[in-house]
Structures are given as C-alpha cells and as structure tokens.
Write a structure and sequence with these properties.
The structure is a single chain. With 238 residues, this protein is an alpha+beta fold. The chain has a single domain, classed as Sortase, Chain: A. The chain is built from four helices and eight strands, in the order αααββαββββββ. The protein has an eight-stranded mixed barrel with strand order 1-2-3-4-7-8-6-5. The radius of gyration is 29 Å and the shape is elongated.
C-alpha cells in the first residue's frame, strides 16, 4: 500500500514529484462496510437506550412536574348519601382502576389493577402477570384478612424488558413513612400508611411469611431494571 525506495533525493534528482496513494476497490468497500456497521451499532444502541429507559424518564418527568399528589376525598354529605359499594366503585373509577382488586399510590401517581394469586417462584407466570398489572403473591392474604398482603411489580430479568412490564412501581423509592397506599378489594376500600422502606437481597423470601397482623408489602427491583436487590415498602392499615 505504501511505496518503497527513494522517491526524491535532494541534490541528486533534478525533478520534483507528487506521489498519490489510492486504495483499491476492495479496500474502499471494506472501509465503507466497517463504517456502516459501526454507525448501525451506534444507532441501535441509542434506540435501545431510548426504548429501554423511556418509561423511567416518563415517570420521573411527570413526578417532577406534578410533585407529590394528594389523596382524593369526598364531602361528608356525599359519603352518607351514597350507596357504600357504588361509592367505592366510583372512587376507584375516578383513579382509573377497578374496585375488584387494585392499588393506588396517590403521592407518586401510581395506579394499577392487581392480578391475584401469582406464583412468585415461577418466572413464566409472574412475567405474564406483570404485563397486565401488579402481581399479588400466591400464598399471601387479601385486605381485611388480618395477615400479610404481598404485591410486586417490575421484576424484570433484563433492562431491555423494562418497557414491557408494568411501570407502576418505578417511583416506589420516593415513598416515606406516613405516605398513603390505597387498595380496592371486592368493592371495598382499604387504606394503609407507609411504616418502613428497606432494601433486601434478591433471594430474601422472609417477607412472604405471615406475622399474625395485617400489613401491606410492596416490592420492586432495585435499582430499576435490574435483579440485584429488592426495594420493599411496608405499610399498616389505618
């Protein structure tokens, strides 16, 4: 590719010259191919990052713009005049969920229907459930039964799956003791107050056990999009 030997030697050669080096066709095509592949990989990486983290960016942006939300309430007159069941159904509908089984976290604007009795030990089962909403761990209890209610969401096996599964718990880390979590179940409303926030190992299943008192546990992955740890929110009935 490069010329060898003396092209011009001062004091010996009477003439000057310019040597132009031109790659052959195969080299040109190889260069264009490598350049095209490189540009394609960069573009694919950018698109992948946007697709993967768009839900997180969206939730963070909405929270930053709106700030902590307040719990909706009705006047005393409305409460005593309305049919209790219908009133709960209407309130759930106002939040955008059903009164059969759903969760609402007003502070972070989170809301989702809940899929009941999902096997937390079966990836195939809980990943399918998380495409529809928040999962209720099979073997734990329901609101009003005086035992542990365990709900989980966003348990992905890879960051690329973030966009596929329910984003309702992305902002769970922003909850603090005293914040309110609402669960609608069988046309009744149950209100819980956050008592504790903690991070545990991914394999810690001790929180699925019952403890003789009603408590609501919400679980998500920490950090979002990984399976390294679990973020737990523990709440008690108000």
């Amino acid at each position: 590719m490069f010329p060898k030997g003396v092209i011009y030697q001062k004091g010996v050669s009477p003439k000057k010259g310019v040597v132009g080096l031109h790659p052959n066709l195969a080299v040109k095509l190889g260069y264009l191919l490598v350049r095209g592949i490189g540009a394609g990989l960069v573009g694919a990486a950018v698109i992948g990052l946007i697709f993967t983290y768009a839900p997180i960016i969206k939730e963070e942006a909405l929270y930053a713009l709106k700030g902590p939300q307040k719990v909706k309430s009705s006047s005393f007159g409305e409460l005593i005049q309305a049919d209790p069941t219908k009133k709960v159904q209407e309130e759930a509908k106002a939040y955008g969920v059903g009164a059969y089984f759903s969760v609402v976290i007003p502070k972070i604007g989170a809301k989702s229907d809940i899929i009941a009795n999902v096997d937390a030990g079966s990836p195939q089962e809980y990943l399918a459930a998380l495409e529809e909403g928040v999962a209720h761990a099979k073997g734990t209890y329901f609101p009003g039964q005086g035992e542990t209610i365990f709900l989980f969401a966003h348990s992905t096996d890879s960051p690329i799956n973030i966009a596929r599964y329910n984003a309702v718990f992305y902002l769970l880390r922003k909850l603090e003791p005293g914040d309110v979590v609402i669960v609608f179940f069988a046309d009744k409303k149950y209100t819980y107050e956050v008592e504790e926030k903690l991070v545990t190992k991914a394999g810690d299943t001790s929180w699925l056990a019952t403890g003789g008192e009603e408590r609501l546990i919400l679980q998500t992955c920490d950090p979002p999009g990984t399976t390294f740890r679990r973020l737990l929110i523990v709440a008690k009935p108000i």
